[in-house]
Amino acid sequence: MTHFFNVFGIWLGAAFTFAIFSFLYKDNPFYKVAEQIFVGLSAGYWFIYTIFNILIPNLFLPLSTDFAANWIKLIPAFLGVLMLMRLVPNAEWMSRYPIALLIGTTSGLAFLRYLKSDVINQITATMINPFVGNNWVTVVGQILLVVGTITGVIYFYFSKKHEGAFGVSAKIGIYFLMVSFGAAFGYTAMARVSLLIGRLQFLLGDWLGIISP
Amino acid sequence: MKRRIPLTITLIVGLIVICSEFIPHRPFSQISSELEVWFMIISGFAILLGQLNLIKTNVLKIQYKQRNWPYFVITLASFFLMVGTGALWGSQQNAGLLGHGTAISSAIGSKPFDYLFNNVYQNLQATMFSLLAFFIASAAYRAFIARTTESILLLAAAILVMLGNTSLGTLLTGWLPDSLSFLHLPKVSEFIMKYPTTAGQRAIMIGAGLGIIGSSLRIILGIERSYLGGD
User: Looking at CA atoms only, how far is residue A6 from chain B in angstroms?
Assistant: First the structure.
């Protein structure tokens, strides 16, 4: 019985793989069915994930095991229910209270996190002596790193017109940003191609058994 | 009142979170850690709101027999199938309403929720994203026209990074002598990633970081209030 369901699972996977790939020819009912199943399963997965991994351990379990010590968790539970009021047209405004708490917490955390990791830490990491290195490649690289970071930040300063020496610096900054975007594109393309290779390995290995998985 | 109370909540909560970083003592540290749990719980309800909204939207489409409505029946059916299997027999180590479903798990090899996840969801997800490989190639062919210095740099960086990370890159420059080893494509790719790309990323991070800090302050101080919606 288990063997049957293993094989059936592989056939299901292969059928849905072909259904999605059929979109490369043109939009068709097979693709649409697979797409809607993906949306439905994805939403269902996150629903169950939220219940088992967020709400049960943080809310239901503390309340059911030691209510006296955790009664305060009824407040976020109440706010959570208010959040669901967004679905009721006349009571929609009630969802503003939990949203305000979420936005306030997120803003406070974002303020601290980005100040430390994205501003202070990045500036600290750039403040190096670029001329200290084992070989000339490292020295050139470090000079590029310092110049690229400073000119890149200059490019993002829009309160002053980009002209003269400031404009030249901003222009150099754009060049570094373009190299960065190009590298990011290259990595994204490679990641997608590796996923495609994974699908072909599944079809040729797991499904057809032509290659060893 | 409908706007003033939410703005006050945002101000107080935002200030407590910020203060707890600079004053790591009671009561700020305690309130801040409790707020993080509250945040998780309310976020959980927000995710549920998303799922309920999906049901509502699809039911309305089916009710009014909108174009392609049978497909939305499939969406709902697959949603309830996933939720039903998860709720009844649980997932992985979590027990459902009927326990761990030992009998059904031994028959099909895993819990029904995990079976659907592994055999259908994961395959659909991987194929959906792998589809982008074709569209990225097609988009690159149309968009990568080396007209300006900027586009040449972008194109060159993308090609060098891709070549440097494949065996073709090693093959093309493997014959170079040791004195020119810095021109080996894998090393060129590594150099691009380590220095100019890091510089660009850092500039973006610093710029975006300053922007986010400014936006956060505007939200906490109640200057930015678009998240409250109309009226």
Answer: 7
Average pLDDT, chain B: 91
Interface list for A 111-140 with B (CB within 8 A): 111-112, 114-115, 117-119, 122-123, 125-126, 137, 140
Q: Does B231 have pLDDT greater than 60?
A: no
Verdict on whether the full-model pTM lies above 0.90: no
Q: In chain B, what are the domain boundaries?
A: 1-66
Q: Tell me, what's the pLDDT at B78?
A: 97
What is the per-residue pLDDT across B77-132, written as a single tens digit (0 to 9) for each? 999 999 999 999 998 888 889 988 888 988 898 999 999 999 999 999 999 999 98
Give per-residue pLDDT as tens, A191-202. 888 989 999 999
Q: Which residues of chain A are within 8 Å of residue B127 when distances are taken between CB atoms?
A: 16-17, 20-21, 199
Domain range enclosing A158: 128-213
A207 close to B (CB below 8 A): no
Of residues A54, A81, A119, nearest to B209 (C-beta): A119
pLDDT mean over A24-31 = 94
- What ipTM was estimated for this complex? 0.85
Say if the Cβ atoms of A44 and B136 lie within 8 Å.
Answer: no
Amino acid at A12: L
Quick one: CA dihedral B60, B63, B68, B74, positive or negative? Answer: positive
Select from A46, A79, A183 the Cβ nearest to the Cβ of B192: A183
Quick one: tokens of A99?
């949203």
A88 touches chain B (CB under 8 A): no
> B148-202, pLDDT tens digit by residue?
899 899 999 999 999 999 889 889 988 888 888 888 999 999 999 999 999 999 9
Rounded Cα distance between A123 and A113, Å, is 14
Residue A22 maps to a domain: no
Residue A2 inside a domain? The answer is: no
Phi first, then psi: what are they for A135, rounded to 5°?
A: -145, 175
The DSSP string of A22-76 is GGGT---HHHHHHHHHHHHHHHHHHHHHHIIIIIIIIIIHHHHH-HHHHGGGHHH
**Cβ contact B72–A36 (<8 Å):** yes
Where do we find the tokens 């109309």? B230
- How many independent structural domains does chain A possess? 1
